[in-house]
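Section 5: illustrative case.
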């Protein structure tokens, strides 16, 4: 699972997308969760709920 924020300046969104694509091409069951309005950490309450559901699910 790759969780990314599109406003993350530490790890650009494109690198997360590349890692996800590489995993899928190799046949690894991968999942990409992207937050368009978050940076390196998830702060908004509604996004935090989604993050927790995805991570612990």
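Designed sequence:
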């Amino acid at each position: 699972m790759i969780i990314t924020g599109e406003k993350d300046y530490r790890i650009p969104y494109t690198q997360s997308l590349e890692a996800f694509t590489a995993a899928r091409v190799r046949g690894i069951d991968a999942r990409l969760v992207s937050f368009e309005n978050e940076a390196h950490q998830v702060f908004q309450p509604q996004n935090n709920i989604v993050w927790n559901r995805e991570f612990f699910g």
